[in-house]
Hints:
By secondary structure, this protein is an all-alpha fold. Helix content is 78%, strand content 0%. The mean pLDDT is 91.
Amino acid sequence: MDENTVRTLLHAIASTPEPQARIDVGRARRRGLRRLWIRRAVAPALAMVAVRGS
Length: 54
């Protein structure tokens, strides 16, 4: 390949539109927030169990 061919290929790649994302951003945020809420609720409860157990 020469430089002109590479430039043409890169230009063609850059000018084509990107495909739609397969990730639902809203769903991912909700799932992450749910995990965070659970983690924040469980950590103090585990600490209490550890304190009572000793």
